From TrEMBL:
CDD domains to which the protein is assigned, alphabetical: cinA
NCBIfam families on file: cinA_nterm, molyb_syn, PncC_domain, PRK00549.1
Natural source organism: Virgibacillus tibetensis
Domain MoaB/Mog: 7-174
Pfam families linked: CinA, CinA_KH, MoCF_biosynth
Protein name in the entry: Putative competence-damage inducible protein
Family as reported in the entry's similarity comment: Belongs to the CinA family.
UniProt xrefs under PANTHER family: NICOTINAMIDE-NUCLEOTIDE AMIDOHYDROLASE PNCC, NMN AMIDOHYDROLASE-LIKE PROTEIN YFAY
Length: 415
């Protein structure tokens, strides 16, 4: 069976400027995969006729299915039709049903329709016109030199309606339903990308279907498994089998799949163990507690937190001794431990966690920028304190510290 190569092109200078995110390409790729169609290229091009034309020529040469989003609106910088006309030499005509719909809209709104709105009703002669049920400009499907071209509006809700109602069923007929492609993401903490890859080297070297791809991310290391089969059941079987093989090797570092987060896992374990947590946050300034209470049901396990940025707050509110601040310093192992123990006692929790450090850009202590101490103390007498050196700017260091706190808690709660 032929393997179809798909490409997605987004037209719009606003995408290049970063004013809006290209969520259309992400959504289309996910749904094309479910229909067994591999996306090989994503392209974004600004509202320039020559550049759009050049991008279309490249796509025509290398892809079997090209889906274009954007550039079908009423303004002068909507150039998708004009660019494709230059490579296909197709006549552009006015689509009567679309024009009637546009006129009707303005009549109902009791506003005057400006002439440029007629542009939205223009389609290529011979195209399969797709009814836009939530907007103005219709979509189009055209076959040019044995390549399938799909033109869709850039407005996400319009694009999704047309793709779901018209495009995916059409492509299923064209491709003969080439199977289902499905991915799952396995998330790991406390292990680096290189060590994870080393532990899984035999599996990675032998991979075929599913494929195994380790990736480093801000919240740890992930492995993306991607499988292709002719049914959802078979795809799930392949993914589950490979997932078991991976977890047999590195399962102690695993904390969740797909959209699961470390904070969700921490809340789940705290609930299961009937324990409550409190936080004393200096360097993180409430970031840890904010992430914790973003999880549904966190009220059952979170006592609260105190942002103790100033040394007087560390002493007078949380309960760190003046001697520790003066002799050891606010950024120290001793201060971190006292913060964790004191917040645990003050807020009557089972576990206290603390964060203190130097976020920069300059250091206010004898510790270099990036130094962070995180301590965990429990009502049963358990005590753990770790020193870390994080790289990055001020906010990056603070984010990494909060994330590391969840990693340490997860490891403790699973032990």
């Amino acid at each position: 069976m032929k393997q179809f190569k798909a490409e997605i092109i987004a037209v719009g200078t606003e995408l290049l400027l970063g004013q809006i995110a290209n969520t259309n390409a992400q959504w289309l790729s996910q749904h094309l995969a479910l229909h067994g169609i591999n996306v090989y290229n994503h392209a974004v091009v600004g509202d320039n006729l020559k550049r759009v034309e050049d991008t279309f020529k490249q796509a025509q040469d290398r892809s079997d299915i090209i889906i274009v989003t954007g550039g079908l609106g009423p303004t002068d910088d909507d150039l998708t039709r004009e660019a494709f006309q230059k490579i296909a030499n197709l006549k552009i005509i006015e689509h009567t049903p679309a024009m009637m719909k546009i006129r009707s809209y303005f009549e109902k709104q009791k506003t005057i329709m400006t002439p440029n709105n007629k542009k939205q009703a223009r389609v290529f002669e011979g195209a399969q016109v797709l009814e836009n049920k939530v907007g103005m400009a219709p979509g189009m499907i055209i076959t040019h030199k044995q390549k399938t071209w799909v033109f869709l509006p850039g407005v996400p809700k319009e694009m999704k309606q047309l793709a779901t109602d018209e495009v995916f069923p059409y492509l299923k007929r064209v491709t003969g339903h080439a199977g289902i492609i499905k991915s799952t993401v396995l998330k790991f903490a406390g292990i680096g990308e290189s060590k994870l890859e080393h532990e899984l080297r035999a599996l990675i070297n032998a991979q075929s279907n599913p494929t195994i791809a380790p990736l480093a991310q801000d919240d740890g290391v992930v492995i993306r498994l991607t499988a292709k089969e002719d049914s959802s059941y078979k795809v799930d079987e392949l993914l589950n089998h490979t997932k078991k093989q991976i977890l047999d090797r590195v399962g102690s570092y695993f904390y969740g799949s797909d959209d699961q987060t470390m904070e969700q896992q921490v809340v789940t374990l705290l609930k299961e163990q009937n324990r409550k947590i409190a936080a004393a946050e200096s360097i993180t300034g409430g970031k840890f507690t904010d992430k914790l209470i973003s999880v549904e049901g966190a009220s059952q396990v979170c006592r609260g937190g105190i942002v103790c940025y100033d040394n007087k707050v560390k002493q007078n509110i949380v309960g760190v001794t003046r001697e520790t601040i003066e002799n050891k310093g606010p950024v120290s192992e001793a201060c971190a431990v006292e913060l964790a123990a004191a917040i645990n006692d003050k807020l009557d929790s089972s576990i206290g966690i603390s964060f203190t450090g130097e976020a920069g850009p300059t250091s206010a202590s004898d510790q270099p920028v990036g130094t962070v101490y995180i301590a965990i103390c429990t009502e049963a007498g358990y005590k753990q304190v770790n020193r870390f050196t994080f790289q990055g700017d001020r906010n990056s260091i603070r984010d990494k510290a909060a994330l590391k706190g969840f990693e340490l808690l997860l490891k403790y709660l699973k032990s």
